Amino acid sequence: MKVTEHIRTTTKTLFSIEILPPLKGRSIKSIYELIDPLMEFKPPFVDVTYHREEYIYKIRDGGYLEKIAIRKRPGTVGICSAIINRYKTDAVPHIICGGFTCEETENALIELNYLGIDNVLLLRGDPIKTETHFTPDPGGNNYALDLVKQVSSMNKGKFLDDDLKDVDPANFCIGVAGYPEKHFEAPSMSTDLRYLKMKIEAGAEYIVTQMFFDNKKFFRFVENCREAGIDVPIIPGLKPLTSKKQMTLLPKTFHIDIPDDLVKEIESCKTDDAVKEAGIEWCVHQSRELMKNKIPCLHYYTMSNAGVIKKIASQVF
Asked: Quick one: CA torsion of 69, 72, 74, 79, rounded to 10 degrees?
């Protein structure tokens, strides 16, 4: 079932989560241990992130450096299939530009289609650690907009090979990312909104936002989207603070602001346990306010911490 259908067929605010694939060498059991405690809140869909390949260099005999590809978090497609099989709920794999040619992207989408996966979240993705800025693979998509166009073409039965005959079109529901505080590479919010609208016009059907800690910024973002002619569902992404170091790590990594009131509250905490409780309380307040404003779905970034999300959901849903 498509994300947009889940939203359209209910009058209540839905609960959904995003999970990370386990580190290489870990089993699917770690995913079940994360999701099992949250199933009581009946998430209609679960997002599964994708992390592109990174490289290491090993010194070989004679002093030569060998470039070796490693996957730190493999398994997005397999995890999505396991989620559907175990929980009978929809899985939303993240598809990124980096690390793929367009042909490899098409092949991955064909596999997802075979598995009956109806939804994809399309992202450009971040640069790997050895890059100063995002660099697409040769023959790959440069931007999330290019990904949207590729998937939309497949939904119309158009594949990279123009000679294919009697093809069956795909039927993916396309989600894209939105940034209440502006994508850090966009020169202005209006520019960011213009590109977001282009993704919607190209076929994207819903938006999931970057995490934020100030609901006013989300409400303003929604207003700006509506004024720009973007009328698809907008799902807020939420994450509680769980340690003091996140006050500097999250703004640096995700280019977001933390409200002064929350900063003061976290700074007054003596332990990380106290920080965690304060973070949960703040996220509960955010969630309740969003729910009162009839937001269609609240989407929680678990960061592999089911206990914290369960405490929040228990007070909200």
From this structure: -170
Environment class of residue 234 by beta-carbon count within 10 Å: exposed (0-12), middle (13-18) or buried (19+)? buried
Q: Find out whether 184 and 255 touch, Cβ atoms under 8 Å.
A: yes
Q: What is the average per-residue pLDDT within 165-185?
A: 94
- Name the phi and psi angles at 182, rounded to 5: 80, 135
User: How many CB atoms are closer than 10 A to CB 289?
Assistant: 14
**296 within 8 A of 14, measured Cβ to Cβ:** yes
100 compared with 199, residue with greater pLDDT: 199
At the top level of CATH, which class does the domain 3-316 belong to? Answer: alpha beta
Q: Which amino acid is at 147?
A: L
pLDDT tens digit string along 25-76?
Answer: 888 999 999 999 999 999 999 999 987 766 667 788 777 777 676 666 668 9
For residue 211, what are the CA distances in angstroms to 177, 218, 248, 283? 10, 10, 15, 11
Sign, CA dihedral 270-272-278-282, equals: positive
This model's pTM is above 0.85: yes
Neighbours of 47 (CB within 10 A): 26
Neighbours of 49 (CB within 10 A): 18
Backbone phi and psi for residue 306, each to the nearest 5 degrees, phi listed first? -70, -35
The span from the CA of 27 to the CA of 42, in Å, is: 24
Distances (CA, A) of 14 to 7, 48, 281, 291: 8, 17, 20, 9
pLDDT tens string 185-229: 999 999 999 999 999 999 999 999 999 999 999 999 999 999 999
Domain boundaries, the chain: 3-316
pLDDT of 132 above 70: no
- Banded pLDDT at 99 (limits 50, 70, 90): confident
Spatial distance between the Cα atoms of 15 and 52, rounded to a whole number of angstroms? 27
Contact 307, 37 (CB under 8 A): yes
